[in-house]
Amino acid sequence: MWTTDTDGALRVKALASGSSANAFLVESPQGKVLVDAGLSARRLSDLIRHYEVFHAPLLGILITHEHSDHVAGADVLARQTGAALIGTPGTLGAMRIGAKADRQPLAAGSTRSLGPFEIHAFPTSHDAADPVGYHISCGQWRVGVATDLGHCTPEVLAALRDTHLTVVEANHDRGRLAANRDYSTMLKQRIAGDRGHLANEQTAALLQALAEDDHDRWVWLAHLSQE
User: Tell me: the pLDDT tens digits for 43-77?
Assistant: First the structure.
């Protein structure tokens, strides 16, 4: 759990992070959003009830891309709560979404307001239809979520520069990936490719670049491989 240390007006909790499921809860007294919903709707609802502090309405579910470990419970949870499903047109088009769900497209490079939040979607490099990360502002506080990155693009670096909490992928060690006997050559190439997942050395280089910024920052390493 990360919370602003001065007024406690913004809290972030990782409900799941890894190769099997991903979901981050961002909440304020005026509302909350999920970034990804990679667990079942029932499990997500249970976790939100357990960890939420402000008990404010769920305003939106921000989808980074359509892979199942990011969207498993998104459609059902959106219909149960009335929360908007927000993602790029390509991502929403690639998902299975019921007719009653409130779809709200947000193109990469665009920004929109949602309750107390200002949400900016920035493009990422991953083998999905139209993937993005999210820069979320609430008052004076800024959170960046960037997982499933084949490599760090200038857009990713720019979006994360001013964040107080930076959630970034650190998926694998290149040597251990190459030596893994359970992965096929094709799978290894996918993971290590420019549209796969970020290696630890790449994450380190990104964080070194961000360290040049002159403000306090918390960093969460996300989407770590279980292998």
Answer: 999 999 999 999 999 999 999 999 999 999 999 99
Cα-based torsion angle of the residue sequence 177, 183, 187, 192 in order, rounded to the nearest 10 degrees: 0
C-alpha–C-alpha distance, residues 165 and 168, integer Å: 10
Band (pLDDT 50/70/90 cuts) for residue 214 is confident
Query: Both tokens of residue 18?
Result: 């890894």
Residue 124 is which amino acid?
Answer: T
The reported pLDDT for the residue numbered 11 is 96
User: Which phi and psi angles does 43 have, rounded to 5°?
Assistant: -65, -40
Give me the half-sphere count of Cα atoms (radius 13 Å) on the Cβ side of residue 113. 4
Residue 15's H or E segment, with its range, is strand 11-16
Q: How far apart are CA 153 and CA 70, in angstroms?
A: 21
Instruction: Give the SS3 label for residue 150.
Output: coil
CB distance 116 to 30 below 8 Å: yes
CA distances from 132 to 13, 173, 187 (A): 20, 23, 22
Which residue is listed with tokens 């799978």? 187
Q: Which residue has the higher pLDDT, 148 or 4?
A: 148
| Structure tokens belonging to residue 155 | 């857009």
